Amino acid sequence: MRSVISFILVTMSLMLIGCGGTKSLQATDTGEIPDWFTNVPKDPNSLYGAKTATSQDLQLAIDKAATDARAEIARQVEIKIEGLQKRFQEETGTSTDAQLLDQFTQVNKTVVSTSLSGTQIAKQKQMKDGNLWRAYVLVEYSVGAANEAFMKQIKNNEQLYTRLRATQTFKELDEEVKKLEDAKK
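^ that's the sequence the OP posted. Answer follows.
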């Protein structure tokens, strides 16, 4: 009888220990995926990149997601795509015993190399995902900031600047930058 009482007391103690205390950092509540992640905003004045990443460290999860989102914006700004397709067909045998072999291979490579100045994290959400942190990040890149960066590149190359200075395109771009500056005021 004494061993039964001891067993019950030990079991109840373990249950109380398991129920008490603060919420564990190893929670499995994954929460809701933000709407702005599944429906990325569309704006003629901005480019957006929405990405998610996980890590055991919360800040690293945020940094990874932000880096991926900026890479997505860079792909929208400047992208070089190389592709290769191969198709091999061979028929062996004769008449009804013939066998057709068909192989199709497709390979794509995407390369992005651009400088982004003026990106900012517009929204973010963090939550536990099992034993990891999951971060959702929405990065915004203003088209006006892109225009400003382009203008700076042009002005840094004096020969190109001299050639483009008199064109209507340069004037329109300059006006867009001025509009952005006026909007900031």
